[in-house]
Amino acid sequence: MGDFNLALVIVAIVVCVLVFVFNVYLLVNYQHPDDKNQAYFPKFVVVLGLSVAAISILMLPADVANRQACRHAIYNGACNLTLPMKDLWLAIYILDAILVFFIIPFAMFYYEGDQDKSIGKRIRSALIWVILTAIICGLVLGILYGLVGKVDFTVRHLSSATATFPSTWDFSTSQQCIGSTAHQCSAYSASPSSETTWTMRTTFPEYVVALATIAGSVLFSIFGGVGIACLPLGLIFSFIRRPKAVITRSQYIKEATELGKKAKELKKAADALHQEERSGSKGRKWRKNVKAVEKELLLLEEDVKALEEMYPQGEKAETAWALTVLGYLAKLILGILGLIVSVAWVAHIVIYLLIDPPLSPFLNEVFIKLDDIWGLLGTAAFAFFCFYLLLAVIAGAMMLGLRLVFITIHPMKWGATLMNSFLFNVGLILLCSISVIQFCATAFAYYAQATAAQEIFGHTLQSLRGIKYLYKYNVFQIAFIVLAGVTFVYYACFGWRRRKPSGRFQLST
Q: What is d(CA 244, CA 488) in angstroms, rounded to the nearest whole number?
């Protein structure tokens, strides 16, 4: 067992290093050319945030492995020699909350500050906003913890009479207890009036994690429910809308001219909005126009990319067209695989979570059987399903951002992602990662039973006063399924159509 624990520690260290290296690779390749060799603090926050999010998801499989390290031990106290998973869970999620509510907002305020100001003024301005946020969050957390920071566990008071110790044992399904008169144990025969509530105050770190989980669950049920459907269907319909053949040069010139006119109109609108911003007239109409211009710009960039695909140029034009065709085929394959995973997720939620009692453990049994085939196969499959939910959250946020005015667009593009978009998406991933872990710990409770995550998310969180009813009546799971169904119907009806610029922005001047 000691060798197993040492191997687990070594694997955990190696995985953390690999996650950090991979996130640095993502940052280097996704960053905008304007951010090269500068904005080092936001970049550090991005790498740290992505690493914390990835490690937090991988901690649940590690928690399961840590539980198995002392499962077959033959002496008491064996589990004391394993990793302190509960302390690690609380530490990683306190760090998660600090990043989401303090460090990432500070980095965004600093990065988006007026470039004409000095570094000191930009830091002071960002600190003022963060301190105000910290005071408000501290007051809210303190008041809520003082008033309702308790857990209410439902327990049953059991009592039974004494009986003479028998000389022979004769147990069966009809005779489960000692004595000829007792056919059922007290736990089965106790009356409903024996139930009572055992109240105790939770720890402050667990309460912070619980509230952060609630905030993340709201976003997760919205973005994740939409994304679980639009992620695979978006890839499939992208293949359906693909360019079927290379266009002629005259067609290319005509389309490029139209795109040039749209670009000039957008530049004129952006300059006018910039003048309004400098004059101080930043009202509701101005924000609506900014969102509309951002949406039109994003769609214009997609049109430019599509035009380049339909008319490849240069000495390797044929190779570029072949790669384009292969790229769309890859999208189709990934879309079909993603659709299978999405259907499996939705079916598992309905079968295991919404129906009481569950019809089947479903994916829990799949992971256990994969573990029987090879020790890490079930763990890898479990981690993949968790990461897929995070990808669905990002896809859902992008889809809703293109259609709802009050959601800001922060696209992630290879070699063209600004740090504020990076920070926004990292904050969204961190906030939703808490809910993804809680969701997975509940959905795979049979696979992840007797773990530290189950103790935090499965007992304390679901018994917290004022919050437990959200989990008792499966509010987040139902919202997730409903939004997934609505999105599927929407894509089935309109997903095959190509989006067109709406042109709906009206300048105030």
A: 25
